C-alpha cells in the first residue's frame, strides 16, 4: 500500500499541468505586483492630471494580472483536492480488494473509512479505533480479563463473546 506522500507524488507526475499552472501563477502574480507597485507609487506622488488616466489604467492592468494569478492558484488547489480525493478512493479500493473478509481492517464508525488493523485512529477523520488497546491500558489489565484477538478490546472474564462477535478463546 502506498503512503499518501508517495501517492500524491505519483499523481502530480501524471498531471504535469499543475507545474504549468504554478509557473503561470507565479509569473502573473509577480508581474501584477510590479505593475501595481510602480504605477500606484507614481499615481500617489504625481500631481499632474495629464498622465493620471494612464497610471490608473496600469494599476488596473496590474490587478488584472494579479487576479489571473489567483485563478491559476485556484486551479492548482482544485488539482490537489482531486489528488486527495483519489487517494481516499485508493485507500477504500485497496482495503476492500486486499482485505475483504479478513481481520486486517476495521471500519470507522464516524466516516465509514476502511483502515488497516494496525491503525489506532482513522486515516480520514482521526476518530479513534473502537476498543483500541493503548499503551496506557495495557499495563492496567487485570488477570481476570481477556483481550479479544479480533479487535483488541479488553473484556471481563465472565464475558463469553466480545462486542465485535469474536468468541472468547479457551
Written account of the structure:
- By secondary structure, this protein is mainly alpha-helical.
- It has 3 domains: 4-99; 103-129; 131-170, no CATH class.
- The chain has 4 helices and 4 strands, in the order H-H-H-E-E-H-E-E.
- The chain has helices at residues 4-14, 17-45, 52-99, 135-138; strands at 105-107, 114-116, 145-147, 154-156.
- Strands 1-2 form a two-stranded antiparallel sheet.
- The protein is rod-shaped and about 95 Å long.
- The two termini are 35 Å apart.
- Residues 132-142 have low confidence and may be disordered.
Oligomer: single chain
> What is the CA-based Rg, rounded?
29 Å
For the termini, the CA-CA separation is 35 Å
Fraction of residues in helices? Answer: 40-55%
The portion of residues forming beta strands comes to: 5-15%
The strand count comes to 4
Spatial arrangement of strands, main beta sheet: 1-2
- Which structural class best describes the helix and strand composition? mainly alpha
Mean pLDDT: 80
Core attributes:
170 residues; mainly alpha; two-stranded antiparallel sheet; 4 helices
Short description:
This protein has helices at residues 4-14, 17-45, 52-99, 135-138; strands spanning 105-107, 114-116, 145-147, 154-156. Strand 3 (145-147) and strand 4 (154-156) form a beta hairpin. By secondary structure, it is mainly alpha-helical.
Amino acid at each position: 500500500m502506498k503512503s499518501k506522500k508517495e501517492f500524491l507524488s505519483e499523481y502530480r507526475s501524471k498531471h504535469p499541468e499543475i507545474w504549468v499552472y504554478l509557473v503561470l501563477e507565479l509569473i502573473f502574480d509577480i508581474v501584477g505586483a510590479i505593475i501595481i507597485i510602480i504605477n500606484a507609487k507614481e499615481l500617489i506622488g504625481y500631481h499632474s492630471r495629464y498622465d493620471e488616466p494612464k497610471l490608473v489604467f496600469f494599476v488596473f492592468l496590474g490587478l488584472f494580472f494579479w487576479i489571473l494569478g489567483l485563478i491559476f492558484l485556484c486551479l492548482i488547489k482544485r488539482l490537489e483536492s482531486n489528488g486527495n480525493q483519489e487517494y481516499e478512493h485508493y485507500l477504500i479500493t485497496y482495503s476492500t480488494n486486499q482485505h475483504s473478509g479478513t481481520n486486517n481492517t476495521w471500519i470507522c464508525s464516524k466516516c465509514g473509512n476502511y483502515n488497516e488493523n494496525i491503525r489506532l485512529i482513522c486515516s480520514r477523520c482521526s476518530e479513534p479505533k473502537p476498543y483500541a488497546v493503548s499503551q496506557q491500558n495495557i499495563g492496567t489489565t487485570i488477570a481476570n480479563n481477556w483481550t479479544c484477538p479480533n479487535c483488541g478490546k479488553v473484556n471481563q472474564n465472565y464475558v463469553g463473546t466480545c462486542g465485535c462477535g469474536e468468541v472468547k478463546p479457551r
